[in-house]
């Protein structure tokens, strides 16, 4: 059986724990964040239903790695959300992707590479050696495309 207690006093910085104790390690670690958006598109040169205009509720998952800062964070999840909102989602959510993305066939395979490149560019000026490790783009709950760092950068 576990002992249960209610914390009656939160630790205070510089009193109960010192600032230099906040950083636990110096290892590269990865954090992930998931976003959804709704959009329409169609595929060129495709014989099948997807040649017609249709839509999806997409899910994009970003894996970002780096070294923790002096308080133990690689990148704040709110920073990832801000990048998403300001630099990526504006081209995607409730948009006709064939118009808003660069000239491409708007397949999940092409879009996931574009997502990787947009996030990687946004992280270029961030500290902690942040970099994109992977992006997954779900077109449906059971179908997705993936871009990985080793395929995008290291190959």
UniProtKB/TrEMBL annotation:
EC nos: 4.1.2.50
Reactions catalysed, as given in the entry: 7,8-dihydroneopterin 3'-triphosphate + H2O = 6-carboxy-5,6,7,8-tetrahydropterin + triphosphate + acetaldehyde + 2 H(+)
A molecular function GO annotation: metal ion binding
Pathway membership: Purine metabolism; 7-cyano-7-deazaguanine biosynthesis
Range of residues in the leader sequence: none
Statement: the UniProt record of this protein carries the keyword Metal-binding: yes
Keywords assigned: Lyase, Metal-binding, Zinc
Family: Belongs to the PTPS family. QueD subfamily.
Name the record gives this protein: 6-carboxy-5,6,7,8-tetrahydropterin synthase
Organism annotation: Gracilibacillus halophilus YIM-C55.5
